[in-house]
Amino acid sequence: MGGGRAPCCDKSQVKRGPWSPAEDLRLITFIQKHGHENWRALPKQAGLLRCGKSCRLRWINYLRPDVKRGNFTPEEEETIIKLHDSLGNKWSKIASRLPGRTDNEIKNVWNTHLKKRLASKVSDSQGEELNEFSMTSSSSSSSSDSFKPYDNQNKGLGLEDPENGASPAKRPKMTLLEEKLNSKTLDSNLTNEAKEPSSCSNSYDSKITDSSQVDVASTPDEELMDSLFNYSGNYEVHDILQEANIEQDILSNKVAELPLESDYDFWNNLENIAPFQSNEAQQLSRDGLVEGSNFGQGCIHQAESMKWLRYLESELGLEATKDESHEYVTTKGRAVVEPLVPETFHNETMLKQEFNLAMAYFQTWPPSPQSFAM
DNA sequence: AACACTTACAACCGCAGAGGT
DNA sequence: CACCTCTGCGGTTGTAAGTGT
């Protein structure tokens, strides 16, 4: 050692920035199977190019099954205000009193809404002089002029009045598969979810094993197949494949050929072809495309499935484009997506053909090393 | 339409404390 | 008891998206 504290990880060797669905899936699948006894060792064992800290944060704040997503209720906000009054910036302590809420989330809500709202109340009741005083503790950009009422600030950011729903401008593009699923399989999805209670339980944390004996490389194919078909109840994927008369074992065989064994390059490349962000799943949940607003308790199934649907759509080339099948309506200069489902999508033969094309694409794995980009 | 500004949130960073050796 | 590793916490930053002009 020597020369001070060792860094938690080699920054040059780890990926940073937003997590991709592929990474999320890897992390979820690993923790589902092996628990998280040792965060430092987890990334390597799970085949993730992240530092343990990043994995922990992602799990705690976003992927954990019991994380409660969506709007803070007025009661929760009141609780935060009261607890902050007595505890100060002890976000983890405050979070412990709000089941399903993370310290990070509470901290963000406080800094972006509650602090300003309180400042506004102060200014209302005590006048301009006190307002200026309170603003000194806010961000430098804050001012009584720039401050807007909470309700207005929330537009389009998942904090809307539930009765009004998401603002159109922020509403994610409803993909073709989602359209199809919404119209044909949502009811059965809910039924299926009830059949698979274990996959959304809080059992992740309880799955503690000897991490030293974890051998991810020994079961790569099982892992991806779990990801595709079992984890989070990807019944939609099943439905789509069945509707297209595609034998599941065809896909299984193709997936089995993928170079999965802790192959960083593969996962990096997968991210390149699955560029959508995980927030989409959250947004879907918020917008009601996924039943319910609680991402962590049950809806993680559908939200994660939606991510996979988008991925598959991307692979199948079925995602609607602006030119082909979306109508854009402008409100206040903002483009709003109004999905239009083309007739052709409902043709299952087409879906099958597109899927076969995707399978042909998979046959080109692994891609050339030059195509890998960090 | 384009640009600048603002907002919200996910992710990162550094530090402190607990626990092991 | 000193040192080390690991985890968790709180502050801060980066960035996507909304808003204003």
Major beta sheet, strand line-up: 1-2
Report on the biggest sheet. Answer: 2 strands, antiparallel
Structural class: mainly alpha
Overall, the morphology is elongated
Identify low-pLDDT runs: 1-6, 128-309, 311-374
Q: Total number of β-strand segments?
A: 2
Number of domains: 2
Q: Considering DSSP H and I runs of 4 or more, what fraction of the residues is helical?
A: 40-55%
Q: What Rg do the Cα atoms give? A: 23 Å
Could you explain how this protein is built, in words?
By secondary structure, the chain is mainly alpha-helical. The protein has helices at residues 21-34, 42-46, 52-63, 74-87, 91-96, 103-126, 128-135, 150-153, 176-184, 186-195, 203-206, 220-230, 235-243, 248-256, 264-273, 279-287, 299-316, 322-325, 348-362; strands spanning 326-331, 334-339. Strands 1-2 form a two-stranded antiparallel sheet. The structure holds a DNA duplex (21 and 21 nucleotides).
What's a quick, concise take on this entry?
The protein is mainly α and 374 residues long. Helices cover 52% and strands 3% of the residues.
Structural features:
374 residues, mainly alpha, 2 domains, two-stranded antiparallel sheet, 19 helices, 52% helix, disordered C terminus, DNA-binding, transcription regulation, Homeodomain-like_sf, transcription, nucleus, SANT/Myb
